[in-house]
Model the fold of this input.
Amino acid sequence: MIPHKQNDGRIIDPARELGCIGKYDVLVVGGGMAGTGAAVSAARLGCKTMLIERETSLGGLATIGLVNIPLDFSCGIGKEMLSRLDQVSGHWHRNSDPEKHKLILDRMTKEAGVDLLLHSYAVDSIVSGGEIKGVVVESKSGRQAVLADRVVDSSGDGDAAFFAGCEYKSGRPSDGMNQACSLEFRLGGVDWDLYLESDLKKNDPRWIKLIEKAVADGAMPYMIENHLNWVTHLPGRPQHCKMDELSLCFAHSRNCRPLDARDLTRMYLEGREQADILWRFIKKRVPGFENCYLIDTATLLGVRESRRITGEYVMQAKDIAQWRRFDDVITMSGHGYDLHNPDGPGNIKWAEMEIDGKQCYAICHTGYGSSWLPPGGLDALTDGFGRKGKDMKFPDLPCYDIPYRCLVPLKIDNLLVAGRCLSADFMAQSGCRLVLACMNMGQAAGTAAALSLRARVAPRKLDRITLQNQLLRDGMELGQKQRRIPGLDTNK
Done:
């Protein structure tokens, strides 16, 4: 209870003592894919580790967000996770079963000895002398403190780093607008085989013309999205019997402010209305979906970008287009630009940049999938070195490094970040935010937290070769088979 005291319309919250849940070696804030990777890796290296998560399960968008498409490099803890999903028929062709996925992540954290606290929000950070000392959490137990020697912020929004006073960027540089957000949904009762044989699948697989016609004739009240983003199967569920179950990325909210509770509320309501419009449209217009029904909508909104915490290195769009290698690599990504348009339908798979004094629209290898093209259309696209058309060149394994410095915030010590809040510019972040990229960053951050404690140095002072050798021992891929990383002997 607080007394009812106001000052200029604001309620005064008096100073109060907080109970302390405990003192940990490593505290991980956020139990999505990045946070799970961080907590498991730290605990396996002998750290007393707590993982706090605001939702009721682990996995974030990969589970309760229904983004059951764990893409990017499978290695380390992520590879182990997919293998365990395989064992329970919860993974097929990089499609996953969200419910089985929750259980696997529960088991992996418990087996590692992680102290898990669900339904708990990080609402402030405890800082002294430029070092983070812990966080304040709110839960059904009230407001409490958690102290730790190292904190990994894998909250997606960079909450702990923000509360600690770290610098950050958010949104498009020109106007601060964030990427579009999506509420995914699932359909049942689909005759997938009939759909695969349909003219629509053969001639308009992304439903671009279908959607245009539906908007024109009123079957769709407005352009929710100008193409189908992706469809996945639910592994282990009925298939090839006219009762397939699918997840779809189709609904999109624009002009988003994902750090504003009012706008988050707007997007959840809008997302459910869009799902209702879309499944009815699909039922009427898409072959094989005539008997489909809406199973559910996600309970977690797909926020693609909010705070990007400024680190010792800011990943650049050009790094992706030029498949940049870094000596302090901690994971790789093969995902190109994937910007869901902030203020209109479509996605953008190219980035505007200056190359050799010329303004270019560069792609990483996937730019031809854009539903929103630059001035000049397809002919204007270049590779990362300004070459156009038939002169464009891409590597056999088109991938780029994510350096450790992108996980190390400026100024505040004993803090690391992992996941979509990494240090990157607007376009670069759109590429390196997939499910397994986030888990790999999390494993690297958790490992770095543990090793810095062993070495008794701040994470920013950790020897990168020590970190990389441990990551290799734990099954991570650093591109060591494709090139030499200075200081590493990968032949041992």
Summary: The chain has twelve helices and 24 strands. The chain has three domains: 19-171+401-473, 185-297, 340-398. The first strand starts at residue 6 and ends at 7.
